[in-house]
Amino acid sequence: MKSVSLACGGGGAEMNALINDVIFKCFDNEILRQSNDGALLDFDSKKLVFTTDSFVANPIFFAGGDIGKIAACGSINDIAMMGAKPLYLSCALIIEEGFELANLERILCSLASVAKDAGLCVVCGDTKVVPKGACDGIFINTSGVGSLLDESLPASIKRLKSANPEKKIKILLSGDIGRHGAALLASRHGLQSLLSSDCAALNTVVESLYDAGIRPLAMRDATRGGLSAVLHEWARVRGGIEVCEEKVAVSAEVMGVCELLGFEAYELANEGTFVLAVSEDESQNALKVLKEFNLAANIIGEFCADFKGVRLKNIYGSKRFLDEPKGELLPRIC
């Protein structure tokens, strides 16, 4: 790879290559190499989680949300996926000359509303204005800080990797998949659809899991690259994953968009759906909590030691391997 392509931002194999072969090489350190949704920072008296993300969604307004809502939910969810409670956000704006102030205010009010509902506020930021045509409307960067819900057992790739190999680990999904990606696809292609994005803050459901005594080994919101990207990342860390296809909820509307436009629902982005790995003895209690928030939640599979990669099993017992997302999947999705 001699130059950056759109595929490098799609959440699949090309993005992993860019991150691991270029970015991590330049910034290499122990914290970064853990490849979590945020950095776990150990201060003298407290452990904090820090995360940052940039948002370049197209369109900036869509059914179920806007770029401001995604920006708030994105950082809140990255903190929550570490098993932490979000505390503060920053907001940095890159605004194109000529951008309408009414739209800017609408976006910022949306971001502020999500933050307020999650119990936190925006405490710092930055604003830059660039010439017409230099940034396509508005780009937003948010960073977040959170405190661990259980300092002794954070959710992390490291915990997943080091978990007892003799114990079964189940994989749960918090809801149906593909709605964010399908909603933006429908909007871009002018399709008549009742679809709306699943964009939502996940801190409340994660806190409920911890309140119920559940301690997930790892959690990941299935954004770019969708469910497939998360499963392949975990399979590289822990071993093979087998998924029961009938346990993965996909709405008829999402399937329709996929059939029309040639996409795979497993690869479409989500902005309010997450995947968690828990020990088998915690799986039923975890499912009970998840279903209080979304009836489509389910235990979808488990880790297996006898193969590598991600394998799907259908209702008839037939099995096939799920390819890792590759190529230009769907740019400007978040």
Automatic annotation (TrEMBL):
Residue intervals of the PurM-like N-terminal domain: 36-147
Positions of the PurM-like C-terminal domain: 170-308
Entries under InterPro entries matching the protein: HypE, PurM-like_C_dom, PurM-like_C_sf, PurM-like_N, PurM-like_N_sf
Highest taxon, organism lineage: Bacteria
Gene3D superfamilies tied to this protein: PurM-like C-terminal domain, PurM-like, N-terminal domain
Stored SUPFAM superfamilies: PurM C-terminal domain-like, PurM N-terminal domain-like
Family statement: Belongs to the HypE family.
Official protein name in the record: Hydrogenase expression/formation protein HypE
Protein source organism: Campylobacter magnus
